[in-house]
Amino acid sequence: MKYAVLFEKTETGYSAHVPDLPGCVAAGATFEETASLMRKAIQMHLAGMQEDGEPIPAPRTIAEYIIAA
């Protein structure tokens, strides 16, 4: 499955979360580190949901950039 990940620049690096997987978050010093940590966090989050017998939510979030004039 392909989940949307939202990244935010912070004072110390980047943070990220997956809107379709509440509680699935990561933070790192660089964008690349945060993206790598987020991939691992998604895998762990989904594995934990499966172990707990929870249904895996389908990706529903759509992200797009809109230029504001």
**Averaged pLDDT:** 97
Largest sheet descriptor: 3 strands, antiparallel
Order of helices and strands: EEEH
Strand content: 15-25%
The largest beta-sheet arranges its strands as 1-2-3
Short description:
The chain has 69 residues and is an alpha+beta fold. It has one helix at residues 31-51; strands at residues 6-9, 14-17, 25-28. A hairpin with a 7-residue loop joins strand 2 (14-17) and strand 3.
Describe the structure.
By secondary structure, this protein is an alpha+beta fold. Helices cover 30% and strands 17% of the residues. It has a domain at 6-51. It is flat and about 45 Å long. The chain starts with 5 loop residues before the first strand and ends in an 18-residue tail after the last helix.
Throw out a few tags for this protein.
single chain; 69 residues; alpha+beta; 3-stranded antiparallel beta sheet; 3 strands; 30% helix; 17% strand; flat
What's the arrangement of secondary structure elements?
Layout: E1 6-9, E2 14-17, E3 25-28, H1 31-51
Antiparallel strand pairs: 1-2, 2-3
